[in-house]
Amino acid sequence: MNRPTSPVFPAAAAPPAPWARGHYYLPDISEAEAAFFAGAALQALDGLIRNGPEWAGLWRARMALKAAAVSTSLLGRPEEEGALRDAVCLTRPGEDPGPAGRVLLAWRRLGRHSGAMDGDLLASVAELLGAKPDRDWKELAGWIDALGQGGRAAPFAAIEAAEHIADGFPALTIPAELLALWLADLALAASLKWPRPVPLLVTQLQKSFFREGPNRRRLRFGEAGWRTACLIGYGQAALEAYDLGADAARRAERLKLTAPKLRAKGAARIIDALLQDDALLPSAWVGMAPGQGMTDRAVRRLFERLLTLGAVRELTGRPTFRLYGL
């Protein structure tokens, strides 16, 4: 099996400026300084995204996993990333993955969305997150699209989107906050003309710079310091996303180097699938590769071969219902 061996980390993706790696504390930084930091970090992430790396699907799926882990913690039902992964990967299509799994599905939908915002999609995401107000979802989707095209600086457009959504709820519950943050990332991506959004801001909501409210509680929408914390959050999230991208690139390169050693039918499609998602369940893949002539046993042997070559990891530690990913 022969595959190209071109570099998988975009050469044009300049790393973040070294000064951006500093630690930022809300009392010590102005909104203008926070905006400058966010802009510098997002610029580095923008360069990575615009180059369209082949591992982008994997990367967005892992950012969604991070977002879901923070979200379930905020909801008072903390789940580790492995449990969230199981909830989605081990649930048959069309079946309910449970509350935690639904949260992960919501963030995965963000990373897979492209094109104009759709009212039906927005309503379905609100339901997945547990936010069910009586809203005109079509009108709201149009408002978000218009905001993304309005020329406002991307982080400020994202923050404005979050605040607009939050203001429409009679009581700002945690599910409502999560929906607002989901839409903030959508508005950010639209403003930056990214092909697909990346889950970002929610991954920072439990960091110290958001805990500047009375008695060190988490800042809420509209409170003093909220916008500055969001700007710091976007900057820090962009740095972490860039680093996760660098890790995904290294893992993808290792996978590509093993490709010539694989002789199994369907190996190319499985390699492509590994580059597009966080984890694969071998038994599910048999039905996903029609016409490849791969039995269940052949698929499992291929994954074991990839594991032996150091190209994939087994992500569960279980002897059965194993999941594999880069």
List keywords for this structure.
2 strands, globular, disordered N terminus, two-stranded antiparallel sheet, Arc Repressor Mutant, subunit A
In short:
With 326 residues, the protein is an all-alpha fold.
Uncertain stretches of 5 or more adjacent residues: 1-7
Shape: globular
**Rg over CA atoms:** 20 Å
Structural class by sheet pairing and helices: mainly alpha
Query: Could you tell me the number of beta strands?
Result: 2
Pfam families: DUF1403
Protein name: DUF1403 family protein
InterPro entries: DUF1403
Give the helix/strand layout.
Blueprint: H1 31-50, H2 56-74, H3 81-89, H4 98-112, H5 119-129, H6 137-148, H7 154-167, H8 174-192, H9 226-258, H10 267-276, H11 282-288, H12 296-308, E1 313-314, E2 324-325
InterPro entries: DUF1403 (IPR009843)
Protein name: DUF1403 family protein
Organism: Brucella endophytica
Describe the structure in your own words:
- By secondary structure, the protein is mainly α.
- It has two domains: 30-247; 262-325, Orthogonal Bundle (Arc Repressor Mutant, subunit A), CATH 1.10.10.
- The chain contains twelve helices and two strands.
- A two-stranded antiparallel ribbon has the order 1-2.
